[in-house]
């Protein structure tokens, strides 16, 4: 048998990069043990939810057509509600992505004249057109729903005075994005989200607090729905799909709000009653079952990346030692060449399409060209090892995913190798 270093060499990793990576990994044992504790807790939480709801083989049967009486679909929604400790959930393959899930949650629960407030700064890029921050056909703005925003303070804290001043009689829904998205602000911990919700509800008790939970699921032992969020929203091709869900989104929350969401997703009157699942229920259940361990792998990969790049002098968010609240790792590579080389390395490390070379392109919904690296089993899945970077200042790359830590680790080593090969980084 070849030793590991030789095998890595055949896979394009030089002796120097291998040695550097191993020295970094050696220092991460304690961090990884901490993650293991969270994973164990979350695995039991998911298992308990499945047992309590009596998931059975019949849940995996396919429905077609209208999809009336889809036992597996209805029970999966109960399982999600149990996991998130909410009254109800909407979990559907007809929800095409995270942006769609968020759009449903926002549009279903606002009416003309209402205002949406983001007290944590600009929301995720694709939501700009949904809300109408950037004009778009069919935006909420076109329906007379206005938007207000309060940025985080310079030091990353909430601007409580600004938030208090922004809440008015029209404020219907407060949207809180947990993850940093394409920004370099820190991700919010569930605890901080809880403080913010408490503050908002003290000012206006009936305001709906919605959390964009994308990339945050199972990173901590509690979710925003455990600290007062009325709705939590996310994508099944991120954390909660465990890499196996081929499509879908979820909204978990208060019964009345979820009913509104179902009426918006399908039609008034039909709501949750329709929506065939075409045989994918098994993957949605199994993916959820694996989600805690898959999320942990991605998290370990992110921590490994932070430590690799921080010690080489790059600005990384989160930094090498701070606590984690989502699986995204931002690395500011400072140059377009750096972003491209990093993404080339991630691509070259993939199990699928490793021979393809990624290039920046004009992606719908984004305001700058974006380069994306992904060789995923599920197209566009970002719980699988993937990286993307908008081609604009500060030239940061956002790295996430890894169904296994071993793969995430290799991807990061391969990215570093690409930077070294192109003369962008020197290890000596
Ligand atoms: C990914 C993401 C979204 C949008 O999800 P898509 O599935 O890409 O539409 C929204 N918000 C955050 C924070 C995200 O990470």
Explain what the structure shows.
The structure is a single chain. The protein is α/β, with parallel strands linked by helices and 428 residues long. The chain has two domains: 4-42 and 289-421, Methioning gamme-lyase, C-terminal domain (Aspartate Aminotransferase, domain 1); 61-280, Type I PLP-dependent aspartate aminotransferase-like (Major domain) (Aspartate Aminotransferase, domain 2). Helix content is 39%, strand content 13%. The strands form two sheets. A seven-stranded mixed beta sheet has the order 1-7-6-5-4-2-3, sandwiched between helices. β11 (386-390) and β12 form a beta hairpin. α3 crosses α4 (71-84), α3 (29-52) runs antiparallel to α10 (281-310) and α10 packs across α12 (405-421). It is globular, with a radius of gyration of 21 Å. The protein starts with a helix and ends in a 7-residue tail after the last helix.
Please name the defining characteristics of this protein:
2 domains, alpha/beta, Aspartate Aminotransferase, domain 1, binds pyridoxal-5'-phosphate, single chain, Aspartate Aminotransferase, domain 2, 13% strand, 428 residues
Whole-number radius of gyration?
A: 21 Å
What is the averaged pLDDT score? Answer: 96
Quaternary status of these chains? Answer: single chain
Task: Tell me about the largest β-sheet.
Answer: 7 strands, mixed
CATH superfamily of the largest domain: Type I PLP-dependent aspartate aminotransferase-like (Major domain)
DSSP, total strands: 12
Q: How large a portion of the residues is in β-strands, by DSSP E? A: 5-15%
- The SS-based structural class is alpha/beta
The total number of structural domains is 2
Q: Flag low-confidence runs.
A: none
Report the total helices. Answer: 12
**Run of helices and strands:** HHHHEHEHEHEHEEEHHEEHEEEH
Share in helix: 25-40%
The CATH class designation of the largest domain is Alpha Beta
What would you call the shape?
Answer: globular
As for the CATH topology of the largest domain, it is Aspartate Aminotransferase, domain 2
Strand order in space, largest sheet: 1-7-6-5-4-2-3
> Span from first to last CA?
30 Å
């Amino acid at each position: 048998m070849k030793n590991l270093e030789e095998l890595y060499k055949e896979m394009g990793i030089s002796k120097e990069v291998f040695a550097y990576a191993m020295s970094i990994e050696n220092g991460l044992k304690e961090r990884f043990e901490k993650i293991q504790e969270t994973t164990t807790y979350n695995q039991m939480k998911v298992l308990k939810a499945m047992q309590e709801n009596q998931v059975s083989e019949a849940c995996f049967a396919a429905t077609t057509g209208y999809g009336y009486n889809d036992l597996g679909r209805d029970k999966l929604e109960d399982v999600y509600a149990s996991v998130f400790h909410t009254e109800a959930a909407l979990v559907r393959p007809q929800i095409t992505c995270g942006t769609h899930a968020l759009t449903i949650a926002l549009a279903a629960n606002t009416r003309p004249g209402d205002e949406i407030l983001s007290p944590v700064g600009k929301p995720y890029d694709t939501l700009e057109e949904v809300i109408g921050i950037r004009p778009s056909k069919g935006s909420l703005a076109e329906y007379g729903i206005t938007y207000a925003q309060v940025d985080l303070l310079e030091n990353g804290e909430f601007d409580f005075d600004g938030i208090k001043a922004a809440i008015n009689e029209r404020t219907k829904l407060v949207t809180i994005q947990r993850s940093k998205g394409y920004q370099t602000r820190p991700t919010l911990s569930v605890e901080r989200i809880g403080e913010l919700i408490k503050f908002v509800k003290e000012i206006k008790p009936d305001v709906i607090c919605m959390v964009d939970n994308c990339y945050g699921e199972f990173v901590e032992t509690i979710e925003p729905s455990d600290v007062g969020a009325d709705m939590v929203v996310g994508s099944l091709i991120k954390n909660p799909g465990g890499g196996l869900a081929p499509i879908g989104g979820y909204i978990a929350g208060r019964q009345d709000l979820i009913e509104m969401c179902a009426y918006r997703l399908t039609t008034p009157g039909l709501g949750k009653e329709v929506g065939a699942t075409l045989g994918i229920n098994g993957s949605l259940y199994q993916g959820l079952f694996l989600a805690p361990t898959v999320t942990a792998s991605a998290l370990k990969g992110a921590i490994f990346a932070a430590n690799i790049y921080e010690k080489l002098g790059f600005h990384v968010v989160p930094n090498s030692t701070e606590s984690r609240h989502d699986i995204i790792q931002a690395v500011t590579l400072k140059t377009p060449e750096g972003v491209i080389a990093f993404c080339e390395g991630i691509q070259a490390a993939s199990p699928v399409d490793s021979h393809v070379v990624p290039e920046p392109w004009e992606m719908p919904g984004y305001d700058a060209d974006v380069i994306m690296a992904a060789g995923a089993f599920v197209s566009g899945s970002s719980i699988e090892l993937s990286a993307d970077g908008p081609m604009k200042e500060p030239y940061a790359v956002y790295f996430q995913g890894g169904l296994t830590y071993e793969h995430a680790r290799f991807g990061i080593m391969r990215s570093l190798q690409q930077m070294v090969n192109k003369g962008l980084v020197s290890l000596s």
